[in-house]
């Protein structure tokens, strides 16, 4: 059963962010762009199990996405919080302009995340849920993206594919100061390659959705 303490998860994810990427861990990416204020937030970190991914989505990603949508309507910047369901709903209801359809949408996603069992087999469902959360906000004032990767190897392959899709591989090679094949090899075989992991984290957190 997932720990419901907000203080626990705030401390836990603060420490996870300081540690950076670790081999053999899952990778979580979370980005928010407030188009009206040009306010950008992007964070990537690694966690050891599915339980931690579930907790991150429930206590950080979902509250931050939906409270930021309310904030954007009020002409304010992004809201990045660690908050439980009850606390988030109270924050919603403190704003007269909040759309109750927005609350229903938030509660639906919370219900979806609560239905996920803490097991390795849940990972693919989590990836689908993250895509839905990201997609549903694409045309609004707030752009959001939630990503989960099985490990650093999958992250590396996805990163390179993204640059290939946009014909910007030379830009990626310049950022890493390595050829594409060397970058991929280091993601796949760099069990103790702190350079590639630190460079990847920095690159991801600086890029726009």
Give me some keywords for this one.
alpha+beta; 209 residues; 9 helices; 3-stranded antiparallel beta sheet; 12% strand
Let me know the number of strands: 3
Percentage of residues in strands: 5-15%
Neighbour order of strands in the largest sheet:
2-1-3
Q: Specify the structural class.
A: alpha+beta
Overall mean pLDDT stands at: 84
What is the string of SSEs from the N terminus onward? HEEHHHHEHHHH
Query: How much helix is in the residues?
Result: 55-70%
Please report the distance between the alpha carbons of the first and last residues: 33 Å
Largest sheet: 3 strands, antiparallel
Task: Enumerate how many helices there are, as a single number.
Answer: 9
Rg over CA atoms: 17 Å
Uncertain stretches of 5 or more adjacent residues: none
Shape: globular
Question: What would you say about this model in short?
Answer:
With 209 residues, the chain is an alpha+beta fold. The protein has helices spanning 6-19, 50-73, 85-93, 100-114, 123-135, 152-165, 169-176, 180-189, 194-206; strands spanning 26-34, 39-47, 142-149. Helices cover 57% and strands 12% of the residues.
């Amino acid at each position: 059963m997932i720990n419901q303490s907000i203080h626990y998860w705030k401390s836990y994810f603060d420490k996870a962010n300081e540690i950076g990427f670790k081999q053999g861990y899952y990778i979580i990416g979370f980005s928010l762009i407030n188009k009206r204020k040009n306010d950008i937030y992007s964070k990537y970190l690694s966690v050891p199990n599915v339980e931690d991914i579930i907790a991150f989505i429930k206590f950080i990603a979902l509250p931050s996405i939906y409270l930021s949508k309310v904030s954007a309507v009020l002409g304010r910047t992004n809201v990045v919080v660690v908050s439980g369901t009850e606390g988030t709903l109270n924050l919603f209801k403190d704003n007269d302009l909040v759309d109750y359809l927005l609350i229903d949408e938030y509660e639906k996603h919370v219900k979806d995340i609560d239905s996920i069992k803490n097991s390795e087999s849940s990972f693919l469902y989590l990836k689908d849920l993250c895509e839905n959360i990201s997609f549903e906000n694409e045309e609004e004032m707030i752009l959001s993206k939630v990503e989960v990767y099985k490990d650093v190897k999958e992250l590396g392959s996805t990163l390179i594919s993204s640059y290939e899709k946009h014909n910007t591989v030379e830009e990626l090679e310049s950022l890493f100061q390595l050829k594409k094949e060397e970058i991929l090899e280091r993601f796949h075989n760099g069990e103790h390659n702190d350079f590639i992991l630190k460079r990847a984290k920095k690159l991801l957190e600086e890029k726009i959705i």
